[in-house]
Amino acid sequence: MKIRFVTVGKTVExxxxxxxxxxxxxxxxxxxxxxxxxxxxxxxxxxxFDQVKEQEAKLLEPYMTPNNYRIVLDEHGAEYxxxxxxxxxxxxMVSPGKDITFVIGGPYGLHxxxxxxxxxxxxxxxxxxxxxxxxxxFLEQLYRAFxxxxxxxxxxx
Length: 157
Description:
The structure is a single chain. The chain is of the alpha/beta class. It has one domain (2-149): SPOUT methyltransferase, trefoil knot domain (Alpha/beta knot), CATH 3.40.1280. It has helices at residues 14-27, 49-60, 82-93, 112-117, 131-149, and strands at 2-8, 32-38, 68-79, 99-104, 120-123. Helix 1 (14-27) runs parallel beside helix 5. It is globular, with a radius of gyration of 15 Å. It starts with a strand and ends in an 8-residue tail after the last helix. The mean pLDDT is 93.
């Protein structure tokens, strides 16, 4: 079982880079974990939002293969408590033959084609967070899910 976390664009704020690295390291103690960062588009400022999403979709498509359970983070997706998310991840991890791929699009969201390829859409909150903060929040929640699954004292109810 492998979990892949695919994001569009680099995290540039150093304090977020350090925090994300810390949670990546912690997650790797529980599962084979890979972070894939799709490069920012060089000409994005000259393109309309839909054109940016289309170009990003072309770069994301190779990671949206049906042999993975594909979960996209989208503001219109299902919301989970931390315990519910841990249960969700636990159930997906025991599904035979499929790795899990989580995908976060660029600042303008995901192209409809990528959303249509997803097996599941998930929202972190009804609130809006900066694109870079979403990565950290997601990684912390994934780490929290593993501690909940293992009955470790990180999460308090």
